[in-house]
Amino acid sequence: MPFLSPLYLWLERWAHHPRATWALGASSFAESSFFPIPPDILLAPMCLARPQRAWFLATVTTVTSVVGGLFGYVIGAYFFHWISPSLEAWGYAQAFELAKEWFLEWGFWTIVLAGFVPIPYKVCTITAGAMGMPIAPFVIASVIGRGKRFYLVAAIMRWSGNRFWARLGRAASVNKKGTVL
């Protein structure tokens, strides 16, 4: 897995950095309300490098994601009229309309699903606020959806992370050889 070695070594060093957990929390908070990069990108290698901390890291990611989701909720509830023109500019207008339809039909389950699958959770947090979803169900749904997602990532990395990296290395090596041909 030579092509992954520099990346793997960098991620492993970063996972042991004193501020790594803070960076993970900040990334998770930001992704839930305005940042486009999911925290899984930090969570997975951090759990792989320090499997004994996987559950703690999943908890940090879940809590900060839910708090970030509340920030997105506030944006939707109080500032939607200011950000709505930006939704189109950022390419989220169609996702917002779809989220509104889902809220009208499924409400609570929209947040659970958005928290788990790789659809823009931030769009659903803002939509929940804009549509006046009650806070308690929003928080409960966020904890369920985000918790399942981040604990699943932590479990995979804790219990089979090294096999995952080995398979990724083999797949990339095959792809690299195919590209050269």
Pick out its properties:
mainly alpha; elongated; 181 residues
Structural write-up:
The structure is a single chain. The two termini are about 20 Å apart. The chain has helices at about 5-15, 20-30, 40-50, 55-90, 95-105, 110-115, 120-130, 135-180. The radius of gyration is 18 Å and the shape is elongated. Helix content is about 80%, strand content about 0%. The chain has a domain at about 60-175. The longest helix is centred in the C-terminal third of the chain and has 46 residues, at about 135-180. It has about 180 residues and is mainly α. It has eight helices and no strands.
Total DSSP helices: 8
Mean pLDDT: 86
For the biggest sheet, the summary is:
none
Measure the end-to-end span.
19 Å
Q: Report the principal-axis shape.
A: elongated
- Total strand segments: 0
- The radius of gyration computed from the alpha-carbon positions, rounded to a whole number of angstroms, is 18 Å
Q: Which helices and strands appear, and what pairs or packs with what?
A:
Blueprint: H1 5-15, H2 20-31, H3 40-49, H4 54-89, H5 93-106, H6 108-116, H7 121-130, H8 135-180
Helix pairs in contact: 1-3, 2-3, 2-4, 3-4, 3-8, 4-7, 4-8, 5-7, 6-7, 6-8
